[in-house]
Please model this.
Amino acid sequence: MAVNAYTALNNAAAVLDHNVVKVVIGENDNALMFSRQPIPYPRNEHPTYFRQLGLYGFTRNGLDLFRQLRQGPVERAEGIEMIRLIEHGYRVRTLPGSDKGIAIDTPENLKRAHAML
Model:
């Protein structure tokens, strides 16, 4: 129905950055949760953090369903679209990806991208 790419986060600043969406992945490669906060919380061990790349794939039926579902309270609070499926009991499959680029989510990121060019 839906798939989302992710990559490991190796930068502590990115883990704390609310513009970077983190994903927790279950044993079956489905997303358990997305958040702008560092998840999972490192209470007893040092977890590996993953960043969703925002590369979504849908089946035709999955896209039709997504469009019909209402935003839930967690999606509205976090501002992360893929939470909509999880809030309604659907799975989001995750696939590892390669991230050689930079996200441009803020005016500061755009300035940084211009400087890199």
Observations:
- The mean pLDDT is 91.
- The first strand starts at residue 2 and ends at 9.
